[in-house]
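Changelog excerpt

This revision adds worked examples to the README so contributors can see how folded entries look when concatenated. The first example is reproduced verbatim below.
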Amino acid sequence: MIARTLIRSQPFIRAFATHAGPNTALPAALHLKTGQSFHGRSFGAPRSIFGETVFSTSITSYTESMTDPSYRNQILVFTTPLIGNYGVPSNKAPIDSQDVGVVLESEGIQCSAIVVADVAEKFSHHAAVESLTSWCRRFNVPGITGVDTREVTRLLRDQGTTLGRLAVGVDASAPAPTPEQYWDPSIENLVDQVSTKVPYHLNPDGDIRIAVLDFGAKANILRSLIRRNAAVTVLPWNFDFNSIRDQYDGLFLTNGPGDPSHCMEAVLKLRETLQMWGKPIFGICMGHQVIGMAAGLEAYRMTFGNRGHNQPVLALASSGSIKAGRVYVTSQNHQYALKLTDPFPTGWEPFFINCNDSSVEGIKSTEDTGKKVWGVQFHPESAGGPLDTMEMFTDFLGECRAHRLTLPMAATTVKLTSSHKKYAAPRFPEISVSA
């Protein structure tokens, strides 16, 4: 009886949803470099853009996906039909031992455009403050709705990630661009665009000091560290960590967008760190690729990439909370991966492998090296996605604390020289850095 009453009352409840605003949609078209075009109507910013067309199979968390720096300059196609139904929350949070100044994964939208089957004209959620349409308009990001995203996804699955053009307004009726007119964002160093420009501290009173190389960090990575009482110093991606490494108990390398070959400066510096430094190191996504390249592995561009919250990975080795032989469901967003080679570089072993495409999902240092170094292609911090591997953060910090107990008392002050302050403002709210 109660269930029937709730079902009958849904139209009444839905009437209290907030309307997205007046419909002033312009015609829009999505053109792919491979020759296909899809027509619909625009929402968000009334402008045309080029980008790399990719799709995500995530069912929820469109706000987290759109603010993930790893989607920089990408036209993001959502396979879930209805997008925008729960609106967009306020993106402000405190800066303390529990949070890093933002609710979502960065301060603004990172993808260049979005493609949806049906954008919600009404949204309803207790935390929502604006619609997806107005949010996109505020960050000058265009979108297209009314597109058969199933067909777009099938095309991308068959032909791989494809360059695209989202044409809005009068551009929608113009001929599709010629192949040479499409712009490929992978030729640019996207990591340099999204990395912090200035070192900054989070949770300075934490009991363990962790340096973070920011290749385009999702906020929940930093949040996952400080909530485990780590004092975090976030550094630019090409920062000379070796000049200050002895002041820290561990090094973390974050996710980031684009081609890892643009990060060779970081690879070479990390190679020295791996040779000369014995403290724990953990890398995620781009950070994992940088670790692998520093170890001697080669990175390659995947045909499709893996993007979504449902990627199964098989653990090939045990470490901390991870048990060999178990399958873990993970959140992923990457176009590049490390090549699986035989033999593996001396001192290294595969950690995870993808159950769908057999790509390398993780590497680790071998026990005989005496080092504690891990890299994973997936996102243990989720946001959004499953929490199967979240305890890897606890494992990493546990190893940092255990290693610290074997050493003399560490310095209590992190010192950054004046030359380390030459960078511009960070992507997250700036924390003062002591001289």
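The second example, added in the same revision:
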Amino acid sequence: MSTNPPDLRPDLARARVTETPRKGQPVIGMVSLGCPKALVDSERILTRLRAEGYGISPDYSGADAVIVNTCGFLDSAKAESLDAIGEALAENGRVIVTGCLGAEPEYITGTHPRVLAVTGPHQYEQVLDAVHTAVPPSPDPFIDLLPEAGVKLTPRHYSYLKISEGCNHKCKFCIIPDMRGRLASRPGHAILREAEKLVDSGVRELLVISQDTSAYGLDRKYDVNPWKDGDLRSHIVDLSRALGQLGAWVRLHYVYPYPHVRELIPLMADHENGVLPYLDIPFQHAHPDVLKRMARPAAGARTLDEIAAWRAICPDLTLRSTFIVGYPGETEAEFQTLLDWLDEAQLDRVGCFKYENVEGARSNDLPDHVPEEVKQDRWDRFMEKAQAISVDKLAAKVGSVQDVIVDDIDEDGIATCRTKADAPEIDGCLFIDENTEGLSVGEIVTVEVDEAGEYDLWGRRL
């Protein structure tokens, strides 16, 4: 049984489709690379195509054409996207490219001139036009029924819920705002309607995502829209409160540590509300000079004060974050400040990138780039520290009682689960290896933790 350490490389998602296409039905395959925000884009594209009568294939061989939704966050992710496009061309031959890397069409066609079309991120209409040209639709309204919740690339018991596009920050290492634009928040009532449909279809956990979740509604000037028996303000606190009343777990990702984040913590401490005591906050570094060179809207010392305030309100709060080591100009002293900060912050879940240049990023032009061997050494030391903290944190949970959601049950009857402290794919797991008869995927059960590892837990059903 393998553990699930933090791994922030772009993930590969394929459509979870079991239906058999009808005779003569045009079929489209999908490969989705990158972050959950891209995964939601893939789901929207597939839902639109499914509504037009297309079948969806989980592999290349059964598809009339393949859509590759690309990632362009890092140069290594760009290379992985090019490899995925090349694999799709070799296996199928008819490939449409979309996603973040699609914002640089010449970069793609320079390597793969045979692709049928290239579109940018969240350009759904252009993707549909390209599919229509390559594989004309042939709908049968009496047979082609669309699931109410649309086509999902995640297991049916959890779903990503994207609340906004774009970002207003100008971090020097990031080109996402150039590709996805400025912050554009969805109306709150539209988000809640989607969330209700998902919960009604069997979703037990909603994973709230955006590029900057805590900035939700800023571009709308926190306008108020009618909802049910009252009004709903387009603000992350109001939206979270409303989502937490739908009867599902609500997990918040990509939250910048703005002062108003403290207003979310009482919701997480309220066990009658579904908002989980979990915050995914991309701190990136702790030394003020590095943060300044990054153009990050944060400061390490004030952040420690905020963390202390959050934990005072909600002692069982789980904090997850990501960091960059080897940023241009990072000195050994600045890196040591980061290690000392991590010691004091005692974050529960931590991931780490080694800095990479990305074409178009302003950080490329900064002086004093760190040698690769120094980046690797700092990454190793950082992860060693983070792992030691994780070991102590998980060991302290032995003997505790936890609610867990079941993600999988293998042929040997071992159930892979997650506690409220664990997001899918990026955090750890809790395994139940006996007395799993009658358990089903998506069920939420109570366990007592009886063993802990570096990143994972084991427990027994109560």
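Reviewer comment on example two: The domain at 11-134 is CATH 3.40.50.12160 (Rossmann fold). DSSP finds twelve helices and 21 strands in the chain.
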